[in-house]
Amino acid sequence: MLHLISKLCLLTSLSIGSIYAFEYKLEPKQVSENIWCFFGKLEMPTKENGGNMSNHCYIKGKNSYILVDSGPTYKFAQAAYKEMEKIAKLPVRVVLNTHEHDDHWLGNNFYKEKFNAKLIGVKLQDENYTEGEPSRMHHLLSHDILEGTHIVKLDEHITKPITKKFDGETIEFIPVGQGHSKFDVLMYMPQRKVMFAGDIVMNGRITSNREGLVIGQLKALNTIQQYDWNILIPGHGYDFSKSAIDESIQYFSLLKKRILKGVEEDVGLAGANKFVQMVEFKDKALFDLLNPRNVSRAYGELEFYEEE
Ligand SMILES: [Zn+2]
Questions:
Q1: C-alpha 53, offset from chain centre
Q2: How far is the CA of 182 from the centre of ligand 1 (A)?
Q3: Domains of the chain: which residue ranges?
Q4: Measured in angstroms, how far is the CA atom of residue 117 from the centroid of ligand 1?
Q5: In which region does residue 204 sit, left (phi positive, over 0), alpha (psi from -120 to 50) or beta (all else)?
Q6: Model confidence at 19, in pLDDT bands (50, 70, 90)?
Q7: How far is the CA of 233 from the centre of ligand 1 (A)?
Q8: Cα 181 to ligand 1 centroid, rounded to whole Å
Q9: What is the whole-number distance in angstroms between the Cα of residue 85 and the centre of ligand 1?
Q10: pLDDT tens by residue, 251-301
Q11: Would the pTM count as exceeding 0.70?
Q12: CA of 99 relative to ligand 1 center, distance in Å
């Protein structure tokens, strides 16, 4: 009898498990001759979207793929590769990470385990994330989604401007310091005229400047404009055309201008959000959640700012 009950319980839990088992539904979008990207939703990471809210791209080299960011989980990376295999059954030899935020790179260990891919990114990623210590995604996503995800160390750090060749493709690494995160790296393909901007550029949604700087962002955006690109892949957002950068420039320029006006009128941190209205962006995704935070953080940053 007991045996039967436990069997029944097992069956019930299995069926519940299978109803709720999470599956990513991914579709690569071709953005240029040899580049495909997976564009994430314009949302915060949730159990429902499995953390699929940032952008990840595959560059097809002669005999292998080179990746820019690897997604929020092992399962995401696995599902993305499954789709890319249909386009060309090539191994992934190199995975590049634009910055330390874990929605962009927790898929790394899939490529390490399957292909022994070389992982290249910023030093802070290794310093701030350790296997066994839950990161942001671990708190936001369910166990089921995170199954198989492990934090693995990088093989190489980008600390200074450097140009590298991978499987016939040239990539310039352009570190811009603290912009969106505490250390961001732009990746530029001069022959293809493609810029991977990481989270320095977002469109269709409000950025999260929780670790960033308004001045750093503007400097980094200015750096991007010095390069000759036709395609710009934002860290979040769907526009990868010549206008992909416009919203970010407008947002941070207006934010700076209005905060400085608020500082001049001494509205104080408590009064900043009432004084600084960013109405031009009110229809963008995540406005109500992130804009007030960005305004408060910007006020703290710019309160004692002096123009260089
Ligand atoms: Zn980020």
A1: 8
A2: 10
A3: 24-248
A4: 23
A5: left
A6: low
A7: 14
A8: 6
A9: 27
A10: 999 999 999 999 999 999 999 999 999 999 999 999 999 999 999 999 999
A11: yes
A12: 7
Report the separation in Å between the CA atom of 131 and the middle of ligand 1, taken as the mean of its atom positions.
20
Cα(199) to ligand 1 centroid in Å equals 5
- Phi and psi, residue 173, nearest 5°: -95, 125
Structure tokens at 188: 């530029």
pLDDT of residue 9: 47
If you measure from the C-alpha of residue 276 to the centroid of ligand 1, how many angstroms do you get, rounded to a whole number?
24
CA of 82 to the centre of ligand 1 (A): 25
What is the reported pLDDT for 21? 77
Measured distance CA(52)–CA(274) in Å, rounded: 33
Instruction: Considering the domain delimited by 24-248, tell me its CATH architecture.
Output: 4-Layer Sandwich (3.60)
pLDDT at 16 over 60: no
Q: Where are the alpha helices (DSSP H) in the chain?
A: 2-20, 74-87, 108-115, 123-128, 136-140, 143-146, 214-225, 246-264, 268-275, 287-302
**Whole-number Å distance between alpha carbons of 248 and 228:** 18
Cα of 65 vs centre of ligand 1, distance in Å, is 23
Pick from 27, 18, 22: which is nearest to 75 by CA? 22
- Taking the centre of ligand 1 as the mean of its atom positions, its distance from the CA of residue 249, in whole angstroms, is 17
Q: What is the pLDDT of residues 155-175, one digit of tens each?
A: 999 999 999 999 999 999 999
